[in-house]
């Protein structure tokens, strides 16, 4: 098992395994996306002579010392993590996105946004929560620190932008490969203007220790899906100091504009401790997750 080390702007080598020659066009477009967004990724391409069966995927995962991206025979890009192929797969959320509202989505009850809202999803991951946020018509800036994840998000946005009924939603998402703290610092140091509108909500869904999804006494809680399992290979939970900084700086971002009230919403597994041990102003939960809201 290869654990990808958390990193700053150091270039990350990544193996891209593809299956046929006709995929050179996709490979070039992937390289162009990496260059356009200045992602610190060095792609090393390799054509697979064997079919990408489950067994082959397991083998590839075991022998490689670098993260692996797969371009399969349907031209779908995925990241191979521990033998499992994972990708944002936003089309699979279509039903949820179409019917999303405060009744069906606890997240939307917690963020209380409208189509005029400006939201930062500071820990974008696979972008699933960003889609729910953008389904309300809000503009969502998606921050993702891991270049590989940012690349998967950009590729997915490009792919879904070609689907007619996804275009408007896609145009409301802005994906940035950065650490949230640096982004917050740049927002907090710029005056509010036409181009730097006030932020209404900062949403944080940082990593949790792998054992915090279940109650230690009752064993109740959420099962860890394959997307989260994969993310645990790529990103570490924040230290307590980083938790403090994330929350404080996020609160400064939503409090930056004195005339409006803002909030920071933090997603936690239902039984996990509060971020930075800070009690929230209000909290929403179901049997799996909890959203802690901090109002400014
Ligand atoms: C639990 S996942 C988020 C899942 C996401 N809410 C979704 O719907 O797919 C956390 C993600 O945030 C990213 N992340 C963690 N800390 C970050 C930070 N300080 N700045 C930017 N991204 C961060 C991690 O790399 C990981 O991809």
From TrEMBL:
InterPro entries assigned: 16SrRNA_methylTrfase_J, SAM-dependent_MTases_sf
Binding residues for S-adenosyl-L-methionine: 205
Keyword flag Membrane: no
Domain of life, per lineage: Bacteria
Compartment annotation: Cytoplasm
Biological-process GO terms, alphabetical: methylation
Biological function: Specifically methylates the guanosine in position 1516 of 16S rRNA.
Name of the molecule in the record: Ribosomal RNA small subunit methyltransferase J
Protein source organism: Psychrobacter alimentarius
